[in-house]
Recover the amino acids of this structure.
């Protein structure tokens, strides 16, 4: 498509050179090139915040959606910083809820879950204070570019694993913010959907990106979706079948 103006210009030039002297030669008209708007940063971005594409600053809906996504990313460093602290504290048994004790690898020594999970999170976070630089290479798109948002399935978001492009669906945008959960009492005393937040959805989707999931889990493959929601992830990590519980290490929802 981008070659068309050049080809047209060349054709008009040749007609001018070889036309008869008496010919009524039209004035060549150059077609304008298509302007591609590059992804841009949020006006006041958080450290290493991803870029945004297709959000019209003059459209109130786009401005509102972009602000929601930006607001969900703002506590990213605090969330992952707290995760690192919990992983390092052997008296904190939170990680035991979601992952089996060791990572099993054929022909290799077993690895403790704490060290392994910490390595996965280190792909997206620089302890103690900021998201990793690679997060800034990701792009949040305003359009449902892959047509994956399905209201009937309550699709929250999706990510293209090789490019790091992400789209947050309407159902995802409607989720609560971490800041709205002012204390742990609102979560109840049971594993439930009360833990959901848009920040958690972002972490889930980031795990699918090759630069995070594939590099962290080079021996077991891409981080996919073996189970969803807190209850499903808890059952997966505590399944007595080793072939099943090992899937927790490559399950995106287990990390959020």
């Amino acid at each position: 498509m981008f070659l068309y103006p050049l080809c047209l210009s060349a054709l008009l030039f040749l007609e001018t050179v070889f036309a008869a002297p008496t010919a009524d030669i039209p004035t060549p008209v150059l077609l304008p090139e298509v302007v591609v708007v590059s992804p841009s940063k949020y006006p006041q971005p958080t450290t290493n915040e991803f870029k945004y594409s297709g959000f019209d600053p003059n459209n109130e809906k786009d401005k509102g959606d972009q602000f929601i996504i930006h607001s969900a990313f703002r506590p990213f460093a605090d969330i992952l910083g707290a995760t690192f602290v919990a992983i390092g504290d052997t008296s904190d048994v939170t990680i035991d809820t979601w992952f089996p004790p060791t990572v099993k690898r054929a022909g290799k020594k077993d690895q403790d879950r704490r060290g392994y999970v910490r390595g996965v999170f280190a792909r997206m976070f620089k302890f103690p204070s900021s998201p990793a630089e690679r997060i800034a290479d990701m792009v949040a798109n305003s359009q449902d570019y892959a047509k994956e948002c399905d209201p009937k399935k309550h699709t929250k978001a999706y990510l293209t694993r090789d490019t790091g492009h992400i789209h947050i669906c309407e159902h995802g945008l409607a989720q609560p913010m971490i800041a709205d959960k002012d204390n742990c009492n609102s979560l109840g005393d049971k594993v439930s959907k009360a833990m959901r937040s848009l920040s958690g959805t972002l972490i889930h989707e980031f795990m699918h990106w090759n630069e995070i999931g594939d590099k962290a889990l080079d021996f077991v493959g891409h981080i996919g979706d073996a189970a969803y929601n807190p209850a499903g992830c808890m059952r997966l990590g505590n399944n007595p079948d080793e072939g099943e519980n090992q899937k927790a290490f490559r399950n995106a929802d287990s990390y959020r």
User: Anything to note?
Assistant: Residues 1-36 have pLDDT under 50 and may be disordered. Residues 64 and 180 are 17 Å apart (CA to CA).
